[in-house]
Write a structure and sequence with these properties.
The protein is of the alpha+beta class. It is built from 6 helices and 14 strands. Helix content is 23%, strand content 23%. Bound molecules: 2-oxoglutaric acid.
Length: 249
């Protein structure tokens, strides 16, 4: 059912005057659906094995977190189409568990419309890569960082002791996996720093990162802490899709 509707969206015609959209649509290749779904991604072993079965996937060699990288996950035309969507509908980013630092997250956010054929196709790519159940996925979000903007060090899972835990987690539970894709390379800055494991990832158009936010006992893994560092020149764009313990929405 899910795949049928994705293929229907992906084969819909783009508006005749949207050249970028036509180019992006032309570059879409239907990914093979995963042989089975691994639900929320907890426990993580089947997801890890499935991701590692794909070609050209790098695993960051550190026992403290499970972090994968794959270059050229999205074609330039798709990245350009997503950048246009983010530019058109961006709003100031927000934070949960506000800590009094008004400059903690200074970027802009865009909720991408999953009924758009390009967004639906990108979702399908992420599902085909991770094997996670689309029912557990939040809608894809775009982020835009201008010069000087950043998202200071944080984790993607919510702290069960935090003031906003009930608000964000009472229905779908906590976040399990994160898939994040860089859509471009800013002129300077904008790397993602995983400071607990001393790993800095440089933005490259189309490069995907995927990581497990949980430890084997299901609690949040503090070693996933990461910082979207300040952009020094140009503009940085990423998209992120988070998965939850229970179905979303
Ligand atoms: O922009 C980045 O490098 C990180 C983005 C991020 O951490 C987030 O959106 O949760």
């Amino acid at each position: 059912m899910f795949w049928a509707s994705v293929w229907r969206f992906a084969s819909a015609l783009a508006p005749a005057n949207a050249i970028w959209q036509n180019a992006a649509m032309a570059s879409l290749a239907n990914p093979a659906p995963p042989p089975e779904t691994f639900g929320s991604g907890y426990p993580s072993e089947p997801v890890v094995a499935f991701i590692q079965s794909h070609a050209n996937v790098q695993k960051v060699p550190n026992p403290k977190l499970t972090l994968f990288l794959k270059r050229d996950f999205l074609e330039p035309e798709l990245c350009a189409a997503l950048i246009d969507m983010i530019d058109a509908k961006r709003r100031p980013s927000t934070v949960s568990d506000y800590n009094g630092d008004a400059s903690f997250r200074t970027s802009e956010t865009c909720d991408l419309d999953k009924s758009d054929p390009i967004v639906a196709a990108v979702e399908a790519r992420i599902i085909a890569f991770t094997g996670l159940d689309p029912a557990h996925g939040e809608p894809i979000q775009g982020q835009r960082y201008a010069v000087g903007q950043e998202f200071k060090a944080h984790t993607d899972y919510f702290d069960p002791r935090g003031q906003d835990f009930q608000k964000y987690c009472s229905i779908a539970g906590n976040r399990t996996w994160t898939a994040m894709i860089y859509l471009n390379e800013p002129g300077a800055g904008g790397a993602t720093r995983f400071k607990a494991v001393n790993k800095i990832v440089q933005p490259e158009a189309g490069k995907l990162l995927a990581w497990n936010n949980l430890r084997p006992d299901g609690s949040g893994n503090p070693s996933t802490i990461h910082h979207g560092m300040k952009v020094r020149e140009g503009t940085k764009y990423v998209i992120t899709k988070w998965f939850r313990e229970r179905p979303w929405g």
